[in-house]
Design brief:
single chain; mainly alpha; 12 helices; 0% strand; transmembrane helix; cell membrane; cobalamin biosynthesis
């Protein structure tokens, strides 16, 4: 039951889906929430791939229109929570100030020029990768679209429990106080399940997982170097950055491995 409630906590915090249920925010429930981060991503991915499949099969819309609807869904379903973290983190990083000043910039509710430019680049690149992927659809495409948020939320969970917090406040610190890295054992089960799902295409799936692992490694190093650790904004930026790289990977696989 706590496992389900942990998943519902994630829906409340990280999606725009209204969950009219009061769930205790104690350590047990937050620990289960962390353990269900990948399932939250899987849930989002299933929505994206189902929407994509339905639009291609049952509507007369062009590939451009379908790509736009899917692109828009990736924004609306999350309520933009991770995009906000991406903008704040980019504003802080591109200020080229020390760690303390960067943390202050992230807390500023105002968005600077670098935050605006970074979100334009991020969303433009994502749209390109989605659109061109719609032109070369295969059965494996739907699995990879499902895997993108699944892996990005896995990266978020690992970062949360393996990188120190840059400050003792905020959403990141709240979740981090509830669990230890030992809670991440279930992530390995999820990854094995994903590989079992793709079966004969394990090589391509392995490439996607390796890319996600590379994003994790990069984010771990740079979070400490640039900000002194993680914050809620840094975690949000890691999700968006990882998803962008994974969308690019799927786009390239359509050209060079799935054509």
């Amino acid at each position: 039951m706590k496992f389900i409630k942990g998943f519902l906590i994630n829906l409340q915090f990280f999606t725009a889906i209204p969950i009219a249920l009061e769930i205790p925010m104690d350590k047990d429930h937050l620990r289960k929430a962390i353990q269900t981060f990948p399932l939250l991503g899987l849930f989002q991915g299933i929505i994206y791939s189902s929407l994509f499949w339905g639009l291609l099969l049952w509507t007369p819309f062009s590939h451009l229109a379908i790509a736009f609807i899917l692109w828009l869904a990736t924004i609306l379903l999350t309520g933009g929570i991770h995009l906000d973290g991406w903008m704040d983190t980019c504003d802080a990083y591109f200020s080229y100030r020390d760690q303390e000043k960067r943390l202050e910039i992230m807390k500023d509710p105002r968005t600077g020029a670098f935050g605006v430019l970074s979100i334009i680049v991020l969303l433009s690149c994502r749209f390109l990768f989605i659109y061109e992927s719609t032109l070369n659809v295969e059965a494996l495409s739907y699995i990879f679209i499902t895997a993108i948020p699944f892996l990005s939320k896995s990266v978020m969970g690992v970062l949360l429990l393996t990188v120190k917090s840059a400050k003792n406040e905020g959403l990141g610190s709240l979740f981090q106080s509830a669990a230890s890295p030992g809670a991440l054992w279930i992530y390995l089960v999820y990854i094995i399940g994903f590989l079992f799902l793709v079966n004969k295409d394990m090589l391509l799936a392995g490439i996607v997982i390796i890319v996600a692992a590379g994003c994790l490694y990069f984010c771990k190093r740079k979070a400490v170097k640039w900000f002194g650790g993680i914050t809620g904004d840094v975690l949000g930026a890691s999700v968006e950055g990882t998803e962008l790289i994974l969308w690019m990977t799927v786009w390239l696989l359509h050209y060079f491995a799935m054509a």
